[in-house]
Every structure is written in structure tokens, then in C-alpha cells.
Amino acid sequence: MQEQIIAMISEVKDDAQLAISLNGHSSIMEDGGLDSLQLITFLLKVEERFGIEIDFEQFDFDCMESVTVFCNYISELQKTASA
Question: pTM for the full model?
Fold first, then answer.
């Protein structure tokens, strides 16, 4: 899942180098460098790819602290969606 998230960040930023430089410890916002519009595009791609729904009103940006933390957040959403 981490590789998929990193690939999506790289795609949204249109920067192939990000796919090489980002890892599980990378901050999505700081290291990924997403601006507000790119962030929304990224989150919509995540929803579509992983079949989840992110509640933007309740979204905790602490989930963006690292790729690993965000992957854990997605996994929890997937468990909730399939329950």
C-alpha cells in the first residue's frame, strides 16, 4: 500500500523523483509538498483506488504525518467499510 500511496503523490505532483525519494517515514504534506488543491486531488484518488470514503469534515491531518500513518488510517477505513 505504501508504494501505491507514494506513486499517487508523485502522480499528483507530476514529479517522478518523489516516487524515489519518499518512503514510509516521509510526511505527505511536507516531504510530498502537496498544496491544497493537490491534497484534495490526492485524497479523491485514494478514495477511488482503495474503495473508501474519507469524511473531509472529520478528517484529522495528523494522519498525513507519514506515509505509514496514512496507510494505517486507510486500513482502518477499509475495515469499517467492510464491516
Answer: 0.93
